[in-house]
Design a protein that fits this description.
The complex is a heterodimer. Chain A has twelve helices and no strands. By secondary structure, chain A is mainly α. Chain B is built from eleven helices and 14 strands. The chains are: A mainly alpha, B alpha/beta.
Chain lengths: 241, 308
């Protein structure tokens, strides 16, 4: 426990610095603006057509949107450091690679949560016009944070592989888009292995939680994605010394 | 204090460091000297734990670098080559971030270091707005923030103007009074000006390891004596000097009006200056100048790395 506290202390210092970094340059604001414009469009374009007091359409497309936006948030985290050389300084500080990777994943997740937070306004305004089922909304936002953390750790892993931010973005995007869309192709796959693909799909687990049913299976899925990709990042940093 | 044994680092096929061993005692300022690409930066990067050696043992105090990297990193202050810092951060925020990671909670410490490194007037500027000299100083401030016992500086004066170079060297000498300093450079004057020990590296191996003064006075192949003599031709001088014991060669450098400038190569074991002087006096010529050429570090360096 004491050891965990020590690890988190170092990780939080990195997270704090990275989070401040998002807001000290225009990039952070641009990403948030783009996200909110697209999210707003997705929400309003279907809301009045369906005439339902719910956020389903918005949550349905969130994994796709995240697959695009979150790698853009994480692409600089290691690539930029490798490119400018500050990576060398970072790695010679008395911090472990676990702390560095954890800190960066936390920073990206917190940033993504800040980005998603304004959309709570939709939930509030829907609650005014109709009787809103609170369960799916709470589930949806909980799922959004878990999904953001998973994609953030994948994005951090992509960023740990290269010093080129564009390449980092494309790798991160490629992995995340597969996890978001894989269930959409299940028509072509033998029904026997459908459940396997469903298990791999981040979208499937997210939609389960967004229905308002928080199952331990879904939580375990997201936790394993986060842990596995963070371990892959740590391995990348260690092995390339 | 720092011990390196049989250090080897390969990048794929390239052997950057090929079996280096040395020990650095407390309180020394050691210069790691070598041509570009000799393996200086690689050696320092392994010492700081940034790179992993292919083989070999590196230890600081009682800690091994691959077993206890964190403990070693706590004891080392490191300024990487060309001081890569976070460009988007303000200098003060950057030093505060470093202080937090080093677990320094004394607010005065950052101020003191800023004064020591002469960066008080740029504390509220962004790092990417700083000149190269200031960047280097911020990098140095970051390296000494936690009062490390060991300071490792990779080409600390690279790219600075002559005034800044003198300032940084003075700062390093000042720090060297209390700390163990290792700096790498390919500039010879730097080593002569700041270090009391030199390790010369070439092609990934150590070719010399001695104190600065020892290396300079170490007997080389021969001693050179330069003379300017008046009222005589070179041929006459050559004939007269030829008979002296120990002279290997008399070279004609140039004639300047009535004056003849020559260089005498003698064996390293004897000092022939009195004999040369007497010879000139006995022949009734006028001696305008006689100097013995001391081997500069430059000579040593060229001898060891190129073989000239």
């Amino acid at each position: 426990m004491e050891q965990f506290k020590d690890i988190m202390k170092g990780a939080m210092l990195i997270a704090k610095k990275e989070l401040a970094g998002y807001f000290s340059t225009p990039i952070g604001y641009i990403v948030i603006s783009v996200f909110l414009v697209i999210a707003g469009f997705l929400f309003f374009s279907t809301f009045f057509l369906y005439g339902q007091a719910e956020l389903r359409a918005y949550f349905e497309l969130l994994p796709l949107l995240f697959a695009f936006v979150i790698p853009a948030i994480t692409m600089r985290l290691f690539s930029e450091e490798r490119n400018t050389g500050s990576f060398e300084m970072l790695m010679t500080l008395p911090l472990s690679t676990v702390q560095v990777v954890t800190g960066k994943v936390i920073a990206a997740t917190v940033f993504a949560s800040i980005m998603v937070a304004p959309t709570l306004v939709y939930a509030v305004s829907v609650a005014f016009v109709g009787s809103l089922d609170v369960g799916p909304v709470i589930g949806g936002y909980l799922g959004a944070v878990l999904l953001a953390a998973s994609y953030a750790s994948i994005g951090v892993f992509a960023s740990s592989m290269t010093k080129n931010q564009i390449v980092a973005f494309i790798i991160g995007f490629a992995i995340c888009i597969v996890l978001s869309l894989i269930t959409k192709f299940l028509y072509f796959i033998s029904p026997k292995i459908v459940s396997l693909f469903e298990y791999i799909s981040a979208d499937y687990h997210f939609q389960n939680i967004a229905r308002g049913v928080v199952d331990s299976r879904n939580i375990i899925y997201f936790t394993s994605v986060i842990v596995l990709s963070s371990m892959a990042s740590i391995y990348q940093l260690e092995v390339r010394r | 204090m720092i011990s390196v044994r049989n250090l080897v680092k390969h990048y794929g096929e390239v052997k950057a460091v090929n079996g280096i061993s040395f020990t650095i005692r407390k309180g020394e300022i050691t210069g790691l000297l070598g041509p570009n690409g000799a393996g200086k930066t690689t050696t320092l990067r392994i010492l700081t734990g940034y790179l992993q050696p292919t083989s070999g043992i590196v230890s600081v105090d009682e800690f091994l670098v691959d077993e206890n990297p964190i403990e070693i990193k706590k004891r080392i202050g490191y300024l990487p080559e060309s001081a890569p810092l976070y460009p988007d951060m303000m200098v003060y925020d950057f030093l505060q971030f470093m202080a937090d990671i080093r677990q320094i909670y004394d607010k005065e410490k950052i101020k003191d270091i800023a004064i020591q490194c002469g960066i008080t007037e740029v504390m509220h500027k962004n790092i990417n707005e700083l000149s190269k000299g200031y960047k280097q100083r911020v990098g140095l401030a970051q390296a000494i923030l936690h009062d490390p016992e060991i300071l490792i500086l990779d080409e600390p004066t690279n790219g600075l103007d002559p005034n800044q170079i003198v300032e940084i060297r003075d700062l390093i000498k000042e720090l060297g009074k209390e700390k163990t300093v290792i700096l790498s450079t390919h500039i010879l004057q730097e080593v002569e000006a700041t270090c009391n020990r030199v390790i010369i590296i070439d092609k990934g191996a150590i070719v010399a390891d001695d104190s600065t003064s020892e290396l300079k006075s170490a007997s080389g192949k021969d001693i050179r004596i330069n003379c300017i003599i008046g009222g005589v031709t070179f041929d006459a001088i050559q004939d007269a000097l030829k008979n002296l014991q120990g002279i290997k060669l008399v070279q004609h450098i140039r004639d300047a009006g009535q004056l003849c400038h020559i260089q005498i190569l003698t064996e390293a074991s004897v000092d022939l200056r009195p004999a040369v002087f007497n010879c000139i006096k006995d022949n009734g010529w006028t001696l305008y100048e006689m100097t013995r050429e001391y081997r500069s570090l430059e000579h040593v360096f060229r001898e060891l790395t190129v073989g000239v």
